[in-house]
Design brief:
This protein is mainly beta. The protein is 12% helix and 39% strand. The chain has one helix at 2-15; strands spanning 28-34, 44-50, 53-57, 63-70, 73-76, 81-85, 91-94, 99-102. A hairpin with a 2-residue loop joins strand 4 (63-70) and strand 5. The longest helix is centred in the first third of the chain and has 14 residues, at 2-15. Mean pLDDT is 85; it is low at 5-19.
Length: 114
């Protein structure tokens, strides 16, 4: 009896898929801050995300599609390059060294409430 129950639990554990972490949200506007294409330092880059699919536009205007391979890694076929995403999603560092930082909107003219 114990052997049958143990075997049933083992089969259930093997056949039940592990719950995967949802992909991190990288949708937004970034700035190229390191090893940018020459002449394009500090310019904006964009990522649009739908599930694990991403559309990227680099600082020089070059566009490509890619996907999130696992929770914190992007792969871009057209650029033949991957990138790691920081845990908080504010920094993307490509395998060849380029770094994009997420732009944070600044709110001007704060209103004082009494």
């Amino acid at each position: 009896m114990k052997l049958a129950l143990g075997a049933a639990l083992l089969v259930t554990a093997i056949s039940t898929p592990a719950l995967a972490d949802p992909p991190i949200n990288v949708d937004g506007v970034y700035r190229c801050v390191h090893l940018c294409q020459p002449g394009y330092e500090g310019l904006r880059a964009f990522i649009g995300q739908s599930g694990t699919d991403v559309n990227l536009v680099g600082e020089a205007g070059n566009s490509a599609t890619g996907f999130i391979e696992y929770p914190r890694r992007i792969w871009v076929d057209a650029w033949n390059e991957g990138a790691m995403i920081s845990p908080d999603g504010t920094k993307i560092q490509f395998d060849k060294g380029t770094v994009w930082l997420r732009e944070v909107p600044v709110i001007h003219g704060a209103v004082r409430i009494r």
